[in-house]
Amino acid sequence: MDQNSIIKSYKRVSSIYDYTFGKVFKPGQKTLIEKMNCNDNDSVLEIGIGTGSSLQYYPQKTKVVGIDISPDMLKIADKKIKDNNSNNKTIAMMNGEELCFSDNTFDKVVAMYVISVTHNPERLIHEMKRVCKEDGDIFIVNHFSCDTDNLFVRAFEKALMPVSKILGWKPYFPYTEFNSYANLDVQEISKVNIFDYWNIIHASNNK
């Protein structure tokens, strides 16, 4: 997936995102943020904040910085922040593969439904680790294809790969491929959303 394809894809769906994909992804957002157990002093980076639909689930006093490469999605997120007077929630247009933050900046770094969308997942994971404090927490929500998946599901995902640019994400994304370069100190993996199709990964940032 190249960046221009991703931006164009989200431009097409930005106005209806909260009423379509957002409804599907909502349980995963809520469950993950509950697992994050944020406190008032935490500083959180959310990569791929999109329309800001996850912001409602963070504790009021937790500082959250959300980034995204889609200006159309960020416009909606910005309106939500202003409407709710969320002074400690901010957004910025930025590529998660090239973060403009110093090393060891955030207590928690989260990427929801982003890993299979980004152009270079390995680079994204590297950046997440870099800006997260040592012994901080990294959280990921994503679907990963597994050898144990239903044969029909795997065949369907592979069949969609030629149109991944139109979809804006990679339908077939093996966990073995991700795990080969992520090198995360995984603390927990759990299932979430409809049919338990998505995975929540909690890792400790042991650099």
Describe this structure in words.
- By secondary structure, the chain is α/β, with parallel strands linked by helices.
- It has one domain: Rossmann fold.
- The chain contains 7 helices and 7 strands.
- It has a 7-stranded mixed beta sheet.
- The longest helix has 16 residues.
- The chain is globular, with a radius of gyration of 16 Å.
- It starts with a helix and ends with a strand.
- 37% of the residues are buried.
- About 6% of the residues have low confidence.
Q: What characteristic shape results from the CA principal axes?
A: globular
According to DSSP, the number of beta strands is 7
CATH topology (level 3) name: Rossmann fold
Find the structural class using helix and strand composition: alpha/beta
The number of domains: 1
Number of H- or I-type helical stretches: 7
- Strand proportion, as a percent range, falls in 15-25%
CATH H level, superfamily name: Vaccinia Virus protein VP39
Main sheet summary: 7 strands, mixed
Summarize the structure.
The protein has helices spanning 3-13, 21-36, 71-83, 121-131, 151-160, 164-167, 175-182, and strands spanning 43-47, 63-68, 89-93, 106-112, 132-142, 185-192, 198-204. It is an alpha/beta fold. The chain has a single domain (3-204), classed as Rossmann fold (3-Layer(aba) Sandwich).
